[in-house]
Write a structure and sequence with these properties.
mainly alpha, Rossmann fold, about 50% helix, elongated, oxidoreductase activity, NAD(P)-bd_dom_sf, SDR_fam, Ketoreductase (KR) domain-containing protein
Length: about 120
């Protein structure tokens, strides 16, 4: 699945739904977001286009995958696993763009989890 293509994400979700066929014995219970590119460069010298490009892959692609798969996950009370990084907490020099987007993933994941809990998404049994 090309996580930078909404068509590819939608096709994948549709394919998975057709394979599972709504069978309660074969629910989709989890989606793992693990796309990423680690850019290590001085922020002062990093072109804005490069920073935007890693946010497209490392942040906005996660959002697109979650939104697309959310109906299936809600139906089955499953969960999303967003793979972050220590870069969301530890901020070494030359890692500013990477640390910023990993902090964004962490914050988005924690907040969105609370929004989805009333629907049974991500709850522990």
């Amino acid at each position: 699945m090309d996580v930078l293509s909404t068509d590819s994400i939608a096709h994948c979700a549709s394919h998975i739904e057709s394979v599972l066929g709504g069978d309660r014995d074969r629910p989709l219970v989890g989606v793992v977001n693990n796309a990423g590119y680690c850019m290590i460069a001085p922020m002062e010298l990093t072109p804005d286009a490069d920073v935007r490009r890693i946010f497209e892959l490392d942040f906005w692609a996660y959002v697109a995958v979650i939104r697309t798969f959310l109906p299936l996950i809600k139906r089955n009370k499953g969960r999303f696993v967003n793979v972050g990084s220590y870069g969301g907490y530890v901020n070494p020099p030359l890692w500013a763009p990477y640390c910023a987007l990993k902090a964004a993933i962490e914050g988005m994941t924690r907040a969105w989890r609370l929004e989805l809990m009333p629907f049974g998404v991500g709850r522990w049994p």
